[in-house]
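User: Continuing from earlier, I have the next pair ready.

Assistant: Great, send them over.

User: Here they are, in order.

Assistant: Folding the first of the pair now:
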Amino acid sequence: MAAKITYRRIYEDSSPQDGQRVLVDRVWPRGMKKEDAHLDEWLRDVAPSTELRQWYGHDPERFTEFRRRYLTELHDDDHQEAAGHLRELAAHDRLTLLTATKDVDHSQAAVLAEWLAKKKR
């Protein structure tokens, strides 16, 4: 049976159904205490580059291009190790990707969830 991959905001309460909880943001979420995050890991190196994140600015009209650029970044030297580790986690357990972004459907967490699901096929 394939492990389930989901994504949501880090500010939501944790759940026993989360499995491994991994923060995929480059910067720590504002107002979140580390002890309240209930994280298994923080993989900041899998997050979009600072340049890409700033260009995107969470503008839904730029999401398609953001997604394309981010998927390209996942194969570069700066992201490869963290991306491989995330694939390994996804292969063995339920995985919840966490982000502070308000619009999670237009976030790197959504892109990663889709990417991981395709890698598992």
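And the other member of the pair:
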Amino acid sequence: MGVEPPETSGAGGDLPPQLRWLKRLVTVLTVTMIGGVLAISAVLVIRLNAESAPVVIAPGDFVLPDGVGLVGISVIEGRVVVVGDDGMIRVFDSESREMIREIPVE
């Protein structure tokens, strides 16, 4: 008169239902995390290998007053900012090459 153990079908049959659920959850989370790491890696590879479009600005395209030398030039939001050695910052439109504004440096 012995008690026979319950029959099990498969490797997960001997686990309680809560542990089977936890095992499935860990497996799904592992697969999700691996997919996320692969996706981030792919995005980094694509972005780092992409060639950026160079901005070509010729300083001679912008007319400065006679006797004023060019100290610096920069492109900001479709406008070209030119710094002269006379203490003035000149803002030009990058399309029309016309001066929009002159700002004194204090």
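Worth noting for the second one:
The radius of gyration is 34 Å. Residues 33 and 88 are 55 Å apart (CA to CA).
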